[in-house]
Design goal:
32% of the residues lie in helices and 23% in strands. It is built from 16 helices and 26 strands. A hairpin with a 2-residue loop joins β22 (461-463) and β23 (466-468). α1 crosses α2 (51-67) and α2 (51-67) packs across α7 (184-192).
């Protein structure tokens, strides 16, 4: 396969990476502990821990896990938001030779039970706010050891006050009782009295079970090996080299980590890449609190800001955002969902920098491609494949299509998962005979190697035999000054098979459907224009802010009547 994208690589970005430099993630971050011992590693709610303290505390937690009889390869669930306990726990689990099972703290009892049972997790580190949910299902799982973390555990006297307020004033912690549960600080103290037995962790050992709906929608664990994550950390670092080489005057990079760390994009790009480059990570427990994000931008010189389109959009609509100093911001990187041109254009106007869009999947650790780090304008593409990554656009029969033609985006590289946990048939369905992962996304690649995602394969709307891509419709409608957010789906139609329906959140309360329809009429051919428009207060979103078209489709199917036609 001709790697046409290599000719478009920025200067200083290597064409290949050597993932064998670090046999495991443990080797990778232990190097950082040694090199950056005195540096601050993470900060949250006014409290900071250094690389040396992270080394010691993760070692103590690893020793505690071993003392409970957990063997290498045992699965440990981590149900935590972005607080200091998160990196300590992740690194502690890996140092014990165990496997991290990331769990969304917002999960219901049903969702939690499925993930714990499917992974056969033996232990869990859980936020106290979620302990009542765990209590409901723990008897149906393999969980034998529970560590309960409170938000203020590592925040000193301030933390005691925070815990009191959450428990007794705000009452955000439901009553719970789990037999023999251990408090997070007690686990660290007990581990400090126990010797950590060094575990030989290799590149082919399992590091993470990252649960995803994949291309079928059924929650399953993507098996990410140590070598997969090590490779992706090195690939993303290699992509940053051009900008880092020109900013050598910065003593320590500061990264704002607002995206949930249990999501693979944030885990790899914020937590693990940040550790690898010796950065300071500012952890934000609630990314929806735009006021707090503004405060952090004011009090810290933020250099790296990974986020999603909806978060960028929310910040841009905050009245104080334009007053911030963006002179320190080197990279605003986007993933998780498509960046809308209107948002990218406005971001550049306000900050003077471009949003660097990337693309990836849980199954690819996650980053596959990225816009060149030195880009200065919105391109509408997801950039070029990262070093050591191959992308092939294929038709339904699995054959590569000519350059410029649409097909399914297929990926091969060291970051591609080993398969789905105990689901060989589903693994076979997404892997080609020559080792490519079928993404389920429709895209094209141009002569320069830049990839454009048309849409999710299952999201494509078929109108009278024509493919209509929701992303294109949403991009157009988002440009209307009265629109805050928009999502497009296909709904059944007797004549056309499907037609386009819009869900719109207003920015201007006076906005009416006829105005949007006229706007679309000037910009879209007839079959692409929306036939139905529904205004709503908010759109359903995932834990990282990705708009969930699937939820809208399900909601539409269960509706008793169709909306009034425009």
């Amino acid at each position: 396969m001709e790697k046409v994208w290599l000719k478009s690589y920025p200067p200083d970005v290597p064409k290949e990476i050597d993932a064998s430099i670090y046999p495991s993630l443990v080797d990778l971050f232990e190097e950082s502990f040694y090199k950056h011992t005195e540096r601050p590693a993470f900060a949250c709610m006014g409290q900071t821990i250094t690389y040396g303290e992270l080394d010691l505390q993760s070692r103590n937690l690893a020793a505690w896990l071993q003392s409970k009889g957990l063997q290498p390869g045992a699965r440990v669930a981590v149900m935590l938001p972005n607080i200091l306990q998160h990196p300590i726990t992740i690194l502690g689990v890996l140092r014990a030779g165990c496997v991290v099972v990331n769990v969304n703290p917002m999960y219901t009892a049903r969702e939690l039970e499925h993930q714990l049972k499917d992974s056969e997790a033996e232990a869990i580190v859980v936020l106290e706010n979620c302990a009542a949910v765990l209590e409901k299902v723990i008897a149906n799982t393999s969980i034998k050891h529970v560590v309960v973390a409170s938000v203020g555990d590592l925040l000193g006297l301030k933390g005691c006050f925070i815990n009191f307020m959450l428990q007794h004033v705000q009452k955000t912690i439901p009553a719970w009782h789990i037999e023999n549960a251990t408090q997070f600080n007690d686990a660290l103290a007990e581990g400090a009295q126990t010797r950590l037995v060094a575990v030989k962790v290799g590149p082919d050992d399992l590091a993470f079970l990252q649960y995803t709906g994949g291309t079928t929608g059924t929650p399953k664990g993507a098996m990410l090996l140590h070598r997969n994550i090590v490779a992706n950390v090195q690939q993303t670092y290699a992509w940053l080299i051009p900008i880092l080489k020109t900013k050598t005057r910065i003593e320590q990079l500061t990264m704002l980590s607002a995206l949930p760390l249990y999501h693979i994009f944030s885990l790899t790009v914020c937590e693990l890449l940040g550790l690898h480059i010796g950065a300071l990570g500012i952890l934000v427990p609630d990314p929806r609190d735009t006021k707090e994000l503004i405060k952090i931008f004011k009090s810290h010189s933020i250099n790296l800001f990974p986020a999603v389109n909806t978060l960028y959009n929310a910040l841009l609509h905050h009245p104080d955002f334009e007053e911030l100093d963006f002179s320190h911001l080197l990279v605003a990187q986007a993933g998780g969902m498509a960046v809308q041109e209107a948002v990218a254009r406005r971001w550049f106007e306000v900050t003077g920098g471009a949003i660097i869009e990337g693309y990836g999947l849980s199954e690819t650790s996650p980053v596959v491609s990225c816009v060149p780090i030195n880009a200065t304008e919105y391109s509408g593409t997801i950039g070029l494949p990262l070093p050591s990554t191959e992308v092939s656009i294929r038709d339904e029969a699995g054959s590569p299509v000519p350059t410029g033609e649409a097909g399914e985006i297929c990926i091969r590289g060291p970051q591609v998962m080993a398969g789905y946990w105990r689901r060989p048939q589903e693994t076979a369905q997404v892997m080609t005979e020559d080792g490519f992962l079928k993404s389920g996304d429709i895209g094209v690649i141009d002569e320069q190697g830049f990839i454009t995602v048309m849409d999710r394969k299952k999201d494509v709307i078929l109108v009278s035999g024509f493919n209509v891509y929701p992303k294109e419709i949403e991009e157009i409608v988002a440009e209307h000054p009265g629109v805050l957010e928009v999502a497009a789906i296909g709904i059944a139609d007797e004549r056309a098979g499907e037609v386009v329906k819009l869900f719109v959140v207003k920015k201007d309360s006076s906005l009416v459907a006829e105005e949007i329809l006229g706007f679309c009429k000037e910009r879209l051919t007839n079959y692409k224009r929306p036939r139905f428009i529904e205004f709503c207060n908010e759109l359903p979103k995932s834990n990282v802010g990705k708009i969930l078209r699937k939820v809208l489709r399900e909601r539409e199917k269960s509706a008793e009547k169709l909306p009034a036609q425009i």
